Amino acid sequence: MSEIFLSHTGVDKPIVRKLAVQLQLAGAAVFLDEWSIEVGESITGAIEEAIGRFDVFVLVWSSDANKSLWTRREYRTAIKKVIEDANRRFVLLKLDKTPVPDLVSDLKFFDFTDQDVGPAVDAILRFKGPADRLQAIQAFLEESGIEVELIHGYGPIVGCPKCGADLKHIESWSQVDHKRDDLYAGARCNKCGWNNGGEVLF
After folding, report:
1. What is the 3-state secondary structure (H, E, C) of the chain?
2. Cα 6 to Cα 58: distance, rounded to the nearest angstrom
3. Is the pLDDT of residue 4 over 90?
4. Would the pLDDT of 202 be above 70?
5. What are the beta bridge partners of residue 176?
6. Domain boundaries of the chain, sorted by first residue
7. d(CA 3, CA 43)
């Protein structure tokens, strides 16, 4: 299992969070500060430890990252680790056209301006394409024992996206709009009231 360190700024957190989820689903161990650092734990200590053990260091580069002293410290430390150990990798994802640091300017970067997470995961984990990624996600789900239910009108679900309730609180629903002769279906949580779905097309 690859250990991935995601270096980014708070401004870029929303897209990095999506990337982290997909990496984890594909079987990688991901260091993301908001997930990986416990309350009361030393932030600098946790980051130092994670940088010490990464297999792949991912620098999510943007205009905000360019202004961040903390990001600069992380990627400089990571470059030193990569030079010392050829088995480690440094992956550069560019969110915008901000010039990259001179230290990594010779690296082939991944263009992440469209924020399409799937191909970024492929680049980080060296998948040959979506089929490899989907196989890895399927293997992860089988090995983890996570129960997945497919609900008509909503899709696959493992629990309530609003409150985190498990599948025993999730129920499917359907209703017909007789005036338009349309069928609607979806999922709802009987614990918090979350509800989502849409028109079912045949």
Report:
1. CCEEEEECCHHHHHHHHHHHHHHHHCCCEEECHHHHCCCCCCHHHHHHHHHHHCCEEEEEECHHHHHCHHHHHHHHHHHHHHHHCCCCEEEEEECCCCCCCHHHCCCCCEECCCCCHHHHHHHHHCCCCHHHHHHHHHHHHHHHCCCCEEECCCEEECCCCCCCCCHHHEEEEEEEECCCCEEEEEEEECCCCCEEEEEECC
2. 5
3. yes
4. no
5. 183
6. 3-144, 149-200
7. 18
CATH 2.40.50.140 at 3-144, yes or no: no
Our measurement of the distance from residue 162's CA atom to the centroid of its chain's CA atoms, rounded to an integer in Å, reads 18
Whether pLDDT at 1 is above 80: no
Q: Which residue has the higher pLDDT, 107 or 40?
A: 107
Q: Which residue has the tokens 């399927």?
A: 138
